[in-house]
């Protein structure tokens, strides 16, 4: 049974999302401002957060920063804004995905399932037991752990899956569209910025100098790769 927190200051939107997700195997929690959302995540075992960007008392951005300080739970932003800058800001602050209002019920359901699947795979179970290595980066996919020079690194589920894709295929270049299609399981429209933000987060966590990366390389005009034979 998955516990999902829906946070929006408009009760009609919360009620609509509850209807969209009512047929799934979910326990639904409600919050109507960012402060309530943070308190619920700290108090309950939440597996995914649907979080509105614009709210009173504490907006979604501030709430997300506070949630991210203690949890890697998937966060999907709910926004009425369509500008890329708002979406990029949300991704920069730790969001895993976003959905633009008005919602498509099928899209909401699909994105929630995708993020939950990735999160639960990261937290439990195993797909490939072998340890992947790229220089000082080590990924144990059985234990879902990433080490950098022997020290454990905390990654979000999306960051983990991107790194796993690149480490399983060292030396192979993946375009942003290919990465988006494989990780998000969605049509890669506007995928370049979304993927670039997550790659930057990975570099900040894994590279001594993110501006001059050793492990996660960009091949200009083509995409990204994990450097081979380090």
What report would you give on this structure?
This protein has 230 residues and is α/β, with parallel strands linked by helices. The chain folds into 2 domains: 2-123, Response regulator (Rossmann fold, 3-Layer(aba) Sandwich), CATH 3.40.50; 131-226, Orthogonal Bundle (Arc Repressor Mutant, subunit A), CATH 1.10.10.10. The protein contains 8 helices and 11 strands. The chain has helices at 11-20, 34-43, 60-68, 84-92, 105-123, 157-168, 176-184, 191-206, and strands at residues 2-7, 26-31, 48-52, 75-79, 97-100, 131-134, 137-140, 145-148, 151-152, 216-219, 223-226. The strands form 3 sheets. Strands 2-1-3-4-5 form a 5-stranded parallel beta sheet, with helices on both faces. Strands 6-7-8-9 form a 4-stranded antiparallel beta sheet, covered by helices on one side. β4 (75-79), α4 (84-92) and β5 (97-100) form a beta-alpha-beta unit. The radius of gyration is 18 Å and the shape is globular. Mean pLDDT is 87; it is low at 124-129.
Largest sheet: 5 strands, parallel
CATH architecture of the largest domain: 3-Layer(aba) Sandwich
Ends distance? 42 Å
| Helix-strand sequence | EHEHEHEHEHEEEEHHHEE
Q: What is the CATH C level class of the largest domain, in words?
A: Alpha Beta
Number of strands: 11
Spatial strand order of the main sheet: 2-1-3-4-5
The chain-level structural class is alpha/beta
Supply the CATH superfamily name of the largest domain. Response regulator
User: How large, in whole angstroms, is the Cα Rg?
Assistant: 18 Å
